[in-house]
Design brief:
The protein is an alpha+beta fold. It folds into 2 domains: 6-56; 70-229, Glucose Permease (Domain IIA) (Distorted Sandwich), CATH 2.70.70.10. The chain is built from 3 helices and 14 strands. Strand 6 and strand 7 (157-164) form a beta hairpin. Helix 1 packs antiparallel against helix 2 (36-56). It is elongated and about 75 Å long.
Length: 233
Amino acid sequence: MIRFAQYGRYELSLYVTLSLALAALSAFGLSAWLSPWIGIPLAIIFFTAAGFVFWFFRDPEREIAGLPTDIVSPADGTVTDVKDSATCAEYIGGGAAMLGIFLSVFDVHINRAPLDGDVRYLRYKAGKFLDVRHPDCPRLNEQQAIGFEANAAGGARVLVRQIAGLIARRIVCDLKPGSRLKRGERFGMIKFGSRTEIWIGTVDARVEWLVKPGDHVKGGSTILGTIHPSQPR
């Protein structure tokens, strides 16, 4: 049986009901009043729209892969950026390894925790709705940042960013400071096309990425890389 995201109850009830009502009106009303050549195609379009909304808010169960030091993907989508050395001023405050994921409207949009840890930082930023492939998207778009201390690698700082896109207009995050994260558990979603980033501070940790740009990943079940203490202990 298909599981649907709890975060999409409003959209499922509103858009699916509206689409099915318009499909019925087109199939029976417009076909009788005007012509079946008008009513039936419109009914098919509205019925397809209802099916798309159902499909978008699917939330499949995932078998969480790997060991506690394995970084699982926080989202479904296509890897766009992989950096071993970058700088992240927000929460991490220094050198970091970074990975970005593009979520198309056809991907599952549930976000999952990449590692075990404790939430220490949350920040919501209102912003623009540029296409997520635009270079200024991570800086200017609406976004929610979640910072946490990972249990692995001696408490390394990790930042996950949920970034809205051209179509996405609502970010959902049900965490609060002090929340405990478990690898692969759901913590929110971005509705419709979007981007998810993960930054891992490299002062206390060393990251070995196992994926590359162009790879398709699945939240919770794809291992993006491994995290280790920066210095052997």
